[in-house]
Records
---
Amino acid sequence: MSVLVIIEHDRGAIASGSLEALTAARTLSSDVIAAVCGGNDAVATACAGYGATEVVDLVHPFLHDYAPQAWGEAVAQLVTARQPDAVIACGTDRGNEVLAHVSVSLDVATVANVLRIDASSAGVWALTRVQWGGSLLEDVTLDAPTKLLTVAHHAYDMVPSEVAEYRTTFTPSLEGSLGSTMVRDRVVREAGVTLTTARVVVGGGRGVGSPEGFAPLEELASLLGGVVGCSRAVTNNGWRNHTDQVGQTGTRIAPDIYLACGISGAIQHWVGAMASKNILAINTDRDANMVTRADYAVIGDLHKVIPAISEEIRRRRG
């Protein structure tokens, strides 16, 4: 059995979700093909470091940057040429978008945001996927000559597995209309740790009380080398930018620890935070959803607890 993995990258910087997808593919087969639109040496090396036995560079002028329709059609043509048993992408915005285009081109159903794959039966796979923003887990079966699916982001840990780098080139035939949607320019944000990559996230909800109330959270995040996130209620109130929002309609995070301060824990927020390795909730309401779901909880006023934690960190550091 062979599995083709759609590799998401941004001008040579491979997405962590694609490394998760490669890890998932290795649980299914020892023949893992990485499809890299545009081709890139650094991406090919990264794929080989996570078990891709072959890296296929898809080369065409439309593929030099992200273009969902062109990427989808290019991968679909590669699938037709190579006939893999399955095609996998990570369930990120881009991964789901590209595989949707592949699905349409091949006229084959796709299953999105899969948490568990049972391929013990060669013809019919048993899958468990996330539905309704994480509030429902659905068991489905997938029966198709070529299985198309995305694995939920953070459902699989990135596990390296070094293999020899074997590269080939594939040149798809793409109509001009497929280049109508393509990244042309970017707004460069300040470099540094982001919500997606941070090992520590200090999140604030409505209980923070005001934009100024985030100052102690910023201080604690700085002491811990982390970043500050927030709930949707905070962005709705205009206290923080949407880019700081953790949740189903914001950023999904997977830090080593998430400190949820004054956050009630609506299901949409929980979906974005549930991949955290550890969650510490700080709240005056012991029955709040975030408190009951957290690994650890402090029942108290965040305006007293957060400064006390920061002070103790400074004291221990001398």
---
Amino acid sequence: MKLKENKAKSLIETAINELIVSIEKGQSEVLTNYLQAMGRFHHYSFTNIMLISRQFPNATRVAGFQTWKKLDRFVIKGEKGIKIIAPMISKKESLKDKNEEDEVYGFRIVNVFDIRQTKGTELPEISTVKGDPTEYSERLNQLIADQKIELLYASNVPADGYSTGGCIVIRTGLSPAEDFSVRIHELAHEMLHQSNKEKLSTEQKETEAEAVAFVVCDAIGLDTNSACRDYIQMYTGDKEMLLKSFERIQKTSSEILYKIKSITHKIES
């Protein structure tokens, strides 16, 4: 059992080190692929998103061999699996307490495959927006309201928008796509930084919020911006800081996407 865990840890460490090297070399396309993967696979863990992005940068829909089989699709002979980490779960012997959760006692490596590595029955297309966030706009406003955050519009805003802890103010006159992106950016500040006791620079806070906006907007089909290049410029060699920042970005963008997307994915991790 220890051997399986060691292999899983080694796989993760290799992926992290390769990501660090890519950032240090200024390879923005690697980071772009990673942030886009956050949007496509927001139901996966931070670690597994990184592993999928590293091994199959253009993956769009992944599932295990048996899951594809249930969907009447079959892995093409010779295709190499994408290795991710899965928990090893110990089922409770007693069912007396239905609220008692199963225990995770370790992790192992499993293979998943992208849809392009399979053939068979066509799956329903996932609809996306092309520069128009109307479908998601009201849901985003509802999410902001659910967070007990007031949303206001004003013409004399010094920037496109700002947040003050419990209140988001957006400049009037923005295009629908810009308005949506700024709302995501400011909501990210509210979720990430208002109650975060960790000392972060203004630059890092802005970059994290912009990265969340990048992930969410890209995931629903909106044009994205230069968040990746900004993030590379921000990296100063602190590996722990970078990984914590990525975890914050992934968790926040995943929560936002989960709550504003109406599509129910048939393929789950």
---
Amino acid sequence: MLEDAAFASLGRELAPEATNQQLVRAHTERYVDQITTMSPENGWVSLDPDTHMSPGSLAAAKCAAGANVAAVDAVMGGAARAAFCAVRPCGHHAERERAMGFCLFSNIAVGALYALDDLGAARVAIIDFDVHHGNGTQDIFWNDSRVLFASSHQMPLFPGTGAAGERGEHDQIVNTPLRPMTATGEMRAAFENQILPAVKAHRPDLIMISAGFDAHQNDPLANLLWTADDFRWATERLTDAAAELCEGRVVSTLEGGYDLDGLAESLTAHLEVLASHAA
């Protein structure tokens, strides 16, 4: 999909590895050391029934987090108006001290904390439209008033968190659980009535998107009925908010998406909007 002529003009950068100093802002030093020590030289190890490491996993996870740092650097520094991190493994299930749900490090949290602690951002808004709740992002920012975390996700579904009553210590977490088989109308209502007003009230200096595409109607791991047009619409609303609130600054990072055709179709719509916004 990224090789299509429509995206030929996009600038592309190899992701650097996040440093341990950057990782321990989102995770404890003990946890980062544990993941490093468990990285196998051969074969693979299991961190939980879903989350495994092979010899290349640690480097890939450090690059996934480092991509968010580099993207934030580019957007906050004015080199780009928007950036997308095409990464694996995903990150939004990784809690401060626990790997889970295919995730080793919280990629988006590492990027957000870099913006806040190193680049002078006062507030960051993270919007997560992956079909699974971003429990890791919520865990890391539960006590941090600088970060709005807003999530739309199917419930009930893994990981079992994300009830509307989970609001954070500073009322800065907005969860909008959606019932199985939810389609366009309820999804857009959740954005219009809850997520977007919260973003505008937070007045962020940077908008970050946990862009999972497993809410697509063909995805095998969930039961929502979103289409590529829904992801296009959500991205348009978020880039409009960025233009209004924070000089257009948007960083998006890939989370889930397990039907490859649905993923490519949805990501095409997402990137078309980001590219138009950045032009």
---
Amino acid sequence: GAHRPELAIIVEVQRNKDETRAAAWLMYLASTISVLQCQVMLLVICTNRGMARYWRRPMTYGHPGLVLTPLVVGPEELPRVDDARIARARPIRAIVSAIVHGDDDQHRKAIYTALMAALEALPPERAKHYTDVVYVSGTRTTRMDLEEALMSGPYKYRGEFAQAVFADGEAEGKAEGKADSILLFLDARGIPVPEAVRAQITSCDDLAQLDDWIIRAATVATAGELFA
């Protein structure tokens, strides 16, 4: 018969104290167990020590014995990878390092240089996927630096999401183009956009927020859920 997996690992990048995400993790764990019929672990990647300490705490939800304690990886657990030779030998470690240590202003350039070496060591489709993971997990500043690294590096490693954002920025420029992309995406999915929602999207000039809405636009059931 078909091979059944023995272990699944759910990976989340967490930058703030959003308690709604913790509740969602329970749903992810339960649905993964239901679908794959195997053991499941939750790995939360945090980009600073304080956030890592916060998410290591046990969380209870009322039901006796139901306690969720995520496995957490923060800057203390994962050494910074800023050497291209190490990145080529351990590409996944270099990719996670770019997520965890991407906010390090002093070493960011070397970290992304190592990331490019890690992507070179992976099959192109996996490299594209991990490019998107790093891009979506970043802040506005780290995304700009990653864009710069990719612009000067191998274009083939831009994932679908990152490449769409780059094309949008090149063609439309800044916030206006991103806002238009969100509206077009919702329209293509047949989701009505009330005037109040449209106004909030088009008036936003926070590129990181617009990027987040672009991602959410792929899965929301209503336009208002973009802001949930």
